[in-house]
Amino acid sequence: xxxxxxxxxxxxxxxxxxxxxxxxxxxxxxxxxxxxxxxxxxxxxxxxxxxxxxxxxxxxxxxxxxxxxxxxxxxxxxxxxxxxxxxxxxxxxxxxxxxxxxxxxxxxxxxxxxxxxxxxxxxxxxxxxxxxxxxxxxxxxxxxxxxxxxxxxxxxxxxxxxxxxxxxxxxxxxxxxxxxxxxxxxxxxxxxxxxxxxxxxxxxxxxxxxxxxxxxxxxxxxxxxxxxxxxxxxxxxxxxxxxxxxxxxxxxxxxxxxxxxxxxxxxxxxxxxxxxxxxxxxxxxxxxxxxxxxxxxxxxxxxxxxxxxxxxxxxxxxxxxxxxxxxxxxxxxxxxxxxxxxxxxxxxxxxxxxxxxxxxxxxxxxxxxxxxxxxxxxx
Length: 379
What we know:
The longest helix is centred in the C-terminal third of the chain and has 26 residues, at about 345-370. The protein has 11 helices and 14 strands. Strand 10 (about 260-265) and strand 11 (about 270-275) form a beta hairpin. The strands form 2 sheets. Strands 2-5-6-7-14-8-13-12-11-10-9 form an 11-stranded mixed β-sheet. Helix 2 (about 30-40) packs antiparallel against helix 9. By secondary structure, it is of the alpha+beta class. It has 2 domains: about 1-165 and about 335-370, Aminopeptidase, CATH 3.40.630; about 175-315, Gcn5-related N-acetyltransferase (GNAT) (Aminopeptidase, 3-Layer(aba) Sandwich).
């Protein structure tokens, strides 16, 4: 068995890579990851140098992991800026570091791709060993795996990788609701009334929304969605990495997994949200608007997504990172997990101590949020 590292994902055939996925999470699809590289969203100039890992038996790919050499910590959503600062203050280089994850996407999913065979646990362990060996060989400060699944998390038990948690707000169809009205009925009276009021004000403003899949979007609609995305990132002073060509590529490569919300007043397209989906989960990603209309963001990014899940039988909606305002709209705090290996033993000990305090604060925050759940208590 041999570990090989690839400077571009197209070196690995798509059929071999995708055969190692155990679900249809779009962010781990060869088409998504290779598309980022092919359409100018990921390259060494922007601080993401592909260094993908493949484990081979002869010429056969038996396990893999999306890896990147990172020159900064942008686009990861697991924030380690203070760790980098501490290294710098002690005259040590934190960058480059090795990251196992999906660029620009705070979405949980398999990172250690091993298929569904009986040797899956063994192969995960081999991937972790190979990542660690490569980190040491290159003399890097650290290795990281972000937004792990439970199966990936179990692979780190008994290792000296440090576990770290965070919270996102996710919607789950825990009530077996069949439509939006049934979902609203599960909320407290106040939250239900507020949502109905928000949606009514938007309708009074003459705004209506429609859902399209990737293969149903016209070229001008793709251009508008990308322009909305650019405007939102520029407004917040963030780096907009994704190109219009990449957006169009998603529509071609993952046509029925792309879900777009188009918002119009009359015939004019004034806002939109771009999402992706798997067989079970909707993932909210990018949104923007040409003008401010009260309640439009909530409609495009949350209510239309929930309604889509209910129509199509999806059980989970992950609308993106951050945003405590999601709680009042039916999204509950959900734990995410990442794992980190720090080369310097002194920093590893100090970071481990800080993570112990961090997890206590995180659990306290989650308990406080759940105490204000928008769902009515069952008698």
